[in-house]
Amino acid sequence: MTAQPMTCVTCKRPFPANGELAAIPDGRKVAFDELRHRTWRICGQCGTWNLLGSEATAAALPELLARYAAGTPEMNAGIGVVHLGSKLDLVRIDDSAVEAAGDAAIAKRRRTVSWLARVGLVGIALPVLTWLWAAHVLLTGPRDVLLPGIGACLTLVCGTAFVERCWALRYGVPVRRAVIGVLGGGLLTGIAIEMFFRGVIPARGALVVVAAAGVGAVLFGSLFAIATGGRRKLRDGTTLWLNRYQTARLTISWIGDELSLNDLPGGRTIVGLDAAETIRLLLGASHRRVSSAMSEAAHQLVRTTGGLSGLLLSLDGWREDHGGRVVIADLPAVYRLALDFALAQRAAGIDGHTAIREQADEATIVASEAEALDEPA
């Protein structure tokens, strides 16, 4: 007597033979979760995941594991797929791989953020070293270069701060202590003129000193302002120039886990991968003085919320309180860092944002509910 073919519980169509598996001869796509001891036939017509019983699973798992190990899996979001011939795909659910890959992506991003924070200390070290050099000149240098040297230092350091803060003002960031740059430049100019009339340096020398310090201030100030961001080429071919000060006026919004970056020049908004990648760039440029404790707290926040989707869900109340859009700089520092880490996970392709991952998650929930009903009261 011929056995009746297995059929899908949803569309009632029979599963075709795969010619590859002895334990599960019917079905062209078979999924399994070794950790939870579950197997499914996935219907090729309607996509339903048909859960097998515990006895069938126990009999099938050894063969499934052996055939999967012999193949070359394609991994994405904790889902591995092995193609066996032309009639069978084996799908393995491996949540441990998701967690390990997520931790690896965040660890890499934590190292990058730590390095960027140390680079930011250059902006503090430069003035300190300059003032130390000026003190050395004051104590040991010849008198004819003393005042021009100190004046040049003042102009370079103070002018750099002034230019950088002018860039900040352009992007809506309050300017503080910018006047000191003007005072430094005025001091150097006055010193150079005084030294010229005393015959210590020629007019050309005074002009060179003033010009060199001024150009240096513009270059360093612009460097500190612009180099903390970068250029971003979008998928439509246009280019955005970004820096960390723009976080004070650019806003983000989201639907589910789909991010939008708003209030770009010209009122422009970008969405999808362009938005996510641009937000990552801005966040990376905005981190300052990231301690190990804050980095660990942000990492734990991503883990407890379950990645980007959960993190954005936890920020829904904040977004609603701010009219549907959130200024990036207004987010608490630990949430900015956590968002950076979550986007790093998404960029690594391990945030679960794939169709088969979503199907596997849904099938796992249904299987859990079915097993709960089978448990004795």
Task: Describe the model.
The chain is α+β, with helices and mostly antiparallel strands and about 375 residues long. The protein contains twelve helices and twelve strands. The strands form three sheets. A six-stranded mixed sheet has the order 3-2-1-6-5-4. Strands 11-10-9-12 form a four-stranded antiparallel sheet, covered by helices on one side. A two-stranded antiparallel ribbon has the order 7-8. Strand 7 and strand 8 form a beta hairpin. Helix 2 crosses helix 11, helix 3 runs antiparallel to helix 4 and helix 8 crosses helix 9. It is elongated, with a radius of gyration of 31 Å. The two termini are about 40 Å apart. About 0% of the residues have low confidence.
Portion of residues within helices: 55-70%
> What is the subunit arrangement here?
single chain
Low-confidence stretches: 175-181
Q: Please state the CA-atom Rg, rounded to the nearest Å.
A: 31 Å
Strand order of the largest sheet: 3-2-1-6-5-4
Whole-number mean pLDDT? 75
Tell me the strand percentage band.
5-15%
Can you write the helix and strand succession as a string? Answer: EEEHEEEHHHHHEEEEEHHHHEHH
**Number of discrete helical segments:** 12
Largest sheet: 6 strands, mixed
Write the layout of secondary structure elements.
Elements: E1 29-33, E2 38-42, E3 49-51, H1 54-70, E4 74-76, E5 79-84, E6 88-93, H2 95-120, H3 122-140, H4 143-170, H5 179-197, H6 203-226, E7 230-233, E8 239-242, E9 251-255, E10 258-264, E11 268-271, H7 272-286, H8 292-305, H9 308-314, H10 316-321, E12 326-327, H11 333-347, H12 355-374
